Each structure stands twice: as structure tokens, then as C-alpha cells.
């Protein structure tokens, strides 16, 4: 059974940093691309970043480019999101999501989602 | 940037057919998928690659995509289908979500 468990969320001041983790189990982690998707309170879904199975390819939304860094440790089956220069508008539940393959193309979608971790940016 | 537009809300009576649309420029040339998100829960994939239904998703859920519009259809809608529904596509190195549609079953 595929399981994705996020951690690392919490309250942080504007301008601060936070690192999220996503522990994966139930599938061969290194052979699947992954993404982070966030959802601000009461709002819709917003894609944040993506990473290839090997970790070589990374992609970011314009809203986080230059501030967030996505990485993975395949030996630990863990995904990371380093978030720097945090802003109030980064407040959201952050989900890690699994892609049904290792690709970055028009058929990109998410077959499994984690439970999410809440990040609150406030002074 | 690429935009996907959904109606904010759709209402349907139990047992009837609900249709939720997702509009995007030449969306039919891309793959569209749909997620269901019930209150307080994580999203769940209900339709992938325009019309593919994942294992465990009831047959009453179906999808289509042509021209500029993708459509999620729920036949014989049940109270348990009340949720937010989001369409999603990939375009120019970006993953795009629609704004979401709240489906009310009443």
C-alpha cells in the first residue's frame, strides 16, 4: 500500500525558513517522479515543485522559484522541500504527491497524495 | 501562463447526473485529470488522462476532453459524492489546476 507522510510544518515568521519532509513507502521510490502541491486555507490546489526519480530534474512554480528547493534521498525514501524567505502567502497545507511514472510531460498527474502538513507564516 | 477555468459550484439531486466542466485553451490537445477532495481530506484521483478511471473509483465517474473543454460526469450521483472537484493539466513545464468546483447533492 502506497503511503506518503509529510512532516516539518509549523509556525514561522515572515522571512524565515522551514524544511518539509515526506516519507514514502509501499512502492519503489526511486523510479517515480514526485511533486509538492499546496492549498491555502479555504482555497484551491496550487502546484509548487516537481522532481524526477533520480533527483536530477527539478521544476518550480514562478511563485516559489528562487526561494524553495526540492530534493530527495532515495536511500531514505524521503522527499524534501527547503523553504526560504517565507511570506504570508506561503501559508498553506503542503501535500507531497506521487506521479505514476518518472516523466515530465503532458500526461503528468498524481495518483497518490499524502495527508499534508500545515505551514503558517505569521509574525 | 495557462489557465483552467471551472464553475465555482454545481448542484445536483440524488440519482441524477452531474457534469463539471473545465475550460482551457486547446485543452483537448493535452491530457486532463480530475481529483475529488472531501472536506478535511486529501485529494483523490478519480479520472486520469482524460477518461481513465483508477482502480477503486466507481463506474459512475467518467471523463471526456475535446476542444477547449474537459468534462467530469457523475451518473447516479450519491450523497457521498458531495465534495470539491479539481481539474488538472500540464503545460509548458508547469502543472496547472482549475480553481475547483463545489458539488452539492441536494
Give descriptors for this structure.
heterodimer, A: 123 residues, mainly beta, 7-stranded mixed beta sheet, 4-stranded antiparallel beta sheet, 11 strands, globular, B: 106 residues, 6-stranded mixed beta sheet, 3-stranded antiparallel beta sheet, 9 strands
Explain what you see.
The complex is a heterodimer of chains A (123) and B (106). Chain A has strands at residues 3-7, 10-12, 18-25, 34-39, 45-51, 58-60, 68-73, 78-83, 92-98, 112-113, 117-121. Chain A has 123 residues and is mainly β. In chain A, the strands form two sheets. In chain A, strands 2, 4, 5, 6, 9, 10 and 11 form a seven-stranded mixed beta sheet that branches. In chain A, strands 1-3-8-7 form a four-stranded antiparallel beta sheet, with no helix packed on it. Helix content of chain B is 0%, strand content 46%. Chain B has no helices and nine strands. Chain B has strands at residues 9-12, 18-23, 33-37, 44-47, 61-66, 69-74, 83-91, 94-97, 101-105. In chain B, the strands form two sheets. In chain B, strands 1, 3, 4, 7, 8 and 9 form a six-stranded mixed beta sheet that branches. Chain B has a three-stranded antiparallel beta sheet with strand order 2-6-5, with no helix packed on it. The model of chain B has no long low-confidence stretch (mean pLDDT 97). The A-B interface holds A 35, 37, 44-47, 50, 59, 61-62, 95, 100, 104-116 and B 1, 30-31, 33, 35, 37, 42-45, 48-49, 54, 86, 88-91, 93-100.
Quick gist of this model?
The complex is a heterodimer of chains A (123) and B (106). By secondary structure, chain A is an all-beta fold. Chain A has no helices and 11 strands.
Regions of chain B with pLDDT < 50 over 5+ consecutive residues?
none
Number of β-strand runs of chain A: 11
Q: Shape of chain B from CA axes?
A: globular
Low-confidence stretches of chain A: none
* Order of H and E elements of chain B: EEEEEEEEE
Rounded Rg of chain A:
14 Å
Query: What is the helix content of chain A?
Result: under 10%
C-alpha geometry of chain A: globular
Q: Report the mean per-residue pLDDT of chain B as an integer.
A: 97
Q: Give the class of chain B from helix and strand content and strand pairing.
A: mainly beta
Tell me the distance between the termini of chain B: 36 Å
- Topology order of chain A in helix (H) and strand (E) letters: EEEEEEEEEEE
Query: What is the tally of beta strands of chain B?
Result: 9
In percent terms, what proportion of residues of chain A is strand?
Answer: over 45%
Strand content of chain B: over 45%
